[in-house]
Amino acid sequence: MRISELAAASGVPATTLRYYESVGLLTAKRGTNGYRDYDIGALGQLSFIEAAKQLDMSLPEIVDLLTVIEAESCTQVREVLHPKLQQRLFEVDKRLAGLRLLRNRLDAAVARVGACPDSGRSCRSECALLGTHRETCGTQTTEPQTTDIKGTR
Protein backbone atom coordinates (compact mmCIF):
# COMPACT_ATOMS: atom_id res chain seq x y z
CA MET A 1 0.00 0.00 0.00
CA ARG A 2 1.22 3.48 -0.71
CA ILE A 3 1.19 6.11 2.00
CA SER A 4 -1.99 7.74 0.69
CA GLU A 5 -3.77 4.37 0.72
CA LEU A 6 -2.59 3.60 4.25
CA ALA A 7 -3.68 7.06 5.36
CA ALA A 8 -7.13 6.54 3.85
CA ALA A 9 -7.51 3.04 5.30
CA SER A 10 -6.32 3.96 8.79
CA GLY A 11 -7.51 7.54 9.17
CA VAL A 12 -3.97 8.55 10.17
CA PRO A 13 -2.65 11.53 8.19
CA ALA A 14 0.29 10.91 5.85
CA THR A 15 2.39 13.42 7.78
CA THR A 16 1.89 11.36 10.94
CA LEU A 17 2.76 8.16 9.07
CA ARG A 18 6.02 9.75 7.90
CA TYR A 19 6.77 10.84 11.44
CA TYR A 20 6.02 7.35 12.79
CA GLU A 21 8.45 5.97 10.23
CA SER A 22 11.14 8.46 11.28
CA VAL A 23 10.89 7.39 14.95
CA GLY A 24 10.78 3.68 14.18
CA LEU A 25 7.10 2.92 14.72
CA LEU A 26 6.45 1.93 11.11
CA THR A 27 8.60 0.56 8.36
CA ALA A 28 8.03 0.77 4.65
CA LYS A 29 9.86 -0.70 1.73
CA ARG A 30 10.91 1.74 -0.93
CA GLY A 31 10.09 1.07 -4.55
CA THR A 32 12.49 1.89 -7.37
CA ASN A 33 10.51 5.10 -7.76
CA GLY A 34 11.19 6.01 -4.10
CA TYR A 35 7.56 5.61 -3.00
CA ARG A 36 6.85 4.04 0.36
CA ASP A 37 5.19 0.63 0.17
CA TYR A 38 3.48 -0.58 3.37
CA ASP A 39 2.29 -4.14 3.88
CA ILE A 40 -1.10 -5.01 5.39
CA GLY A 41 0.56 -5.44 8.82
CA ALA A 42 0.96 -1.67 9.00
CA LEU A 43 -2.77 -1.36 9.75
CA GLY A 44 -2.34 -3.63 12.78
CA GLN A 45 0.65 -1.65 13.94
CA LEU A 46 -1.32 1.58 13.67
CA SER A 47 -4.14 0.06 15.70
CA PHE A 48 -1.64 -0.98 18.37
CA ILE A 49 -0.01 2.46 18.35
CA GLU A 50 -3.39 4.15 18.83
CA ALA A 51 -4.35 1.78 21.66
CA ALA A 52 -0.99 2.38 23.39
CA LYS A 53 -1.35 6.15 23.00
CA GLN A 54 -4.79 5.93 24.63
CA LEU A 55 -3.02 4.30 27.59
CA ASP A 56 -0.75 7.38 27.74
CA MET A 57 2.34 5.52 26.58
CA SER A 58 5.13 7.55 25.04
CA LEU A 59 6.25 6.92 21.49
CA PRO A 60 9.64 5.51 22.62
CA GLU A 61 7.77 3.06 24.89
CA ILE A 62 5.56 2.06 21.97
CA VAL A 63 8.62 1.50 19.77
CA ASP A 64 10.07 -0.83 22.44
CA LEU A 65 6.79 -2.71 22.77
CA LEU A 66 6.42 -3.15 19.02
CA THR A 67 9.93 -4.58 18.92
CA VAL A 68 8.99 -7.12 21.60
CA ILE A 69 5.66 -7.95 19.95
CA GLU A 70 7.29 -8.57 16.58
CA ALA A 71 10.13 -10.73 17.97
CA GLU A 72 8.83 -12.55 21.02
CA SER A 73 6.16 -15.01 22.15
CA CYS A 74 2.89 -14.02 23.79
CA THR A 75 4.31 -15.05 27.17
CA GLN A 76 7.31 -12.78 26.74
CA VAL A 77 5.10 -9.92 25.54
CA ARG A 78 2.95 -10.35 28.65
CA GLU A 79 6.05 -10.33 30.88
CA VAL A 80 7.13 -7.03 29.36
CA LEU A 81 3.74 -5.36 28.96
CA HIS A 82 2.04 -6.35 32.22
CA PRO A 83 4.50 -4.54 34.56
CA LYS A 84 4.42 -1.45 32.31
CA LEU A 85 0.63 -1.36 32.53
CA GLN A 86 0.73 -1.88 36.31
CA GLN A 87 3.19 1.01 36.64
CA ARG A 88 1.00 3.21 34.46
CA LEU A 89 -2.02 2.34 36.63
CA PHE A 90 -0.04 3.26 39.76
CA GLU A 91 0.88 6.62 38.19
CA VAL A 92 -2.74 7.30 37.25
CA ASP A 93 -3.93 6.46 40.77
CA LYS A 94 -1.33 8.87 42.15
CA ARG A 95 -2.52 11.63 39.79
CA LEU A 96 -6.15 10.90 40.74
CA ALA A 97 -5.29 11.26 44.44
CA GLY A 98 -3.70 14.62 43.67
CA LEU A 99 -6.74 15.68 41.68
CA ARG A 100 -9.08 14.63 44.52
CA LEU A 101 -7.06 16.76 46.92
CA LEU A 102 -7.19 19.68 44.49
CA ARG A 103 -10.94 19.22 44.11
CA ASN A 104 -11.46 19.26 47.88
CA ARG A 105 -9.35 22.43 48.20
CA LEU A 106 -11.28 24.10 45.38
CA ASP A 107 -14.59 23.08 46.94
CA ALA A 108 -13.56 24.63 50.27
CA ALA A 109 -12.30 27.81 48.55
CA VAL A 110 -15.56 28.14 46.59
CA ALA A 111 -17.52 27.88 49.85
CA ARG A 112 -15.32 30.45 51.65
CA VAL A 113 -15.34 32.96 48.79
CA GLY A 114 -19.06 32.43 48.17
CA ALA A 115 -19.78 33.20 51.84
CA CYS A 116 -18.05 36.58 51.62
CA PRO A 117 -20.78 39.21 52.11
CA ASP A 118 -21.44 42.15 49.82
CA SER A 119 -19.43 45.14 50.92
CA GLY A 120 -18.10 48.33 49.43
CA ARG A 121 -14.91 48.01 51.47
CA SER A 122 -11.63 46.69 50.16
CA CYS A 123 -11.69 42.91 50.12
CA ARG A 124 -8.85 40.56 50.98
CA SER A 125 -10.06 37.53 49.03
CA GLU A 126 -6.70 35.85 49.42
CA CYS A 127 -7.61 35.42 53.08
CA ALA A 128 -10.76 33.58 52.04
CA LEU A 129 -8.70 31.43 49.66
CA LEU A 130 -6.15 30.62 52.32
CA GLY A 131 -8.85 29.81 54.85
CA THR A 132 -7.44 32.08 57.51
CA HIS A 133 -9.66 33.36 60.25
CA ARG A 134 -8.91 37.02 59.72
CA GLU A 135 -11.29 39.82 58.98
CA THR A 136 -12.33 39.30 55.37
CA CYS A 137 -14.39 41.63 53.20
CA GLY A 138 -14.89 44.01 56.08
CA THR A 139 -16.58 41.45 58.35
CA GLN A 140 -15.13 39.44 61.17
CA THR A 141 -15.02 35.70 60.39
CA THR A 142 -14.23 34.47 63.90
CA GLU A 143 -16.34 34.74 66.98
CA PRO A 144 -15.48 37.83 69.05
CA GLN A 145 -13.62 36.88 72.17
CA THR A 146 -15.15 38.11 75.43
CA THR A 147 -13.28 38.45 78.64
CA ASP A 148 -15.05 37.34 81.77
CA ILE A 149 -13.46 39.13 84.69
CA LYS A 150 -14.66 37.86 88.03
CA GLY A 151 -14.92 40.06 91.01
CA THR A 152 -15.34 43.34 89.17
CA ARG A 153 -18.35 45.58 89.11
Protein architecture, described:
By secondary structure, this protein is mostly helical. The chain is built from six helices and two strands; from the N terminus they run H-H-E-E-H-H-H-H. The chain has helices at residues 3-10, 14-22, 41-54, 59-71, 74-114, 125-130, and strands at residues 29-30, 36-37. Strands 1-2 form a two-stranded antiparallel ribbon. The longest helix has 41 residues, at 74-114.
Question: Quick summary of this structure?
Answer:
This protein is 59% helix and 3% strand. With 153 residues, the protein is mainly alpha-helical.
Sum up the overall morphology in one term.
elongated
Mean pLDDT: 83
Q: Beta-strand level of the residues, as a percent range? A: under 5%
Question: Helical residue percent?
Answer: 55-70%
SSE pattern: HHEEHHHH
Task: List the total number of helices.
Answer: 6
The Rg value, from CA coordinates, equals 30 Å
Question: What's the arrangement of strands in the largest beta sheet?
Answer: 1-2
Question: Using DSSP, what is the number of strands?
Answer: 2
Low-confidence stretches: 139-147
Largest pleated sheet: 2 strands, antiparallel
- Category from helices, strands and their pairing: mainly alpha
Q: Give the CA-CA distance, first to last residue.
A: 102 Å
Write the layout of secondary structure elements.
Elements: H1 3-10, H2 14-22, E1 29-30, E2 36-37, H3 41-54, H4 59-71, H5 74-114, H6 125-130
What labels would you give this structure?
153 residues; mainly alpha; two-stranded antiparallel sheet; 6 helices; 3% strand; elongated
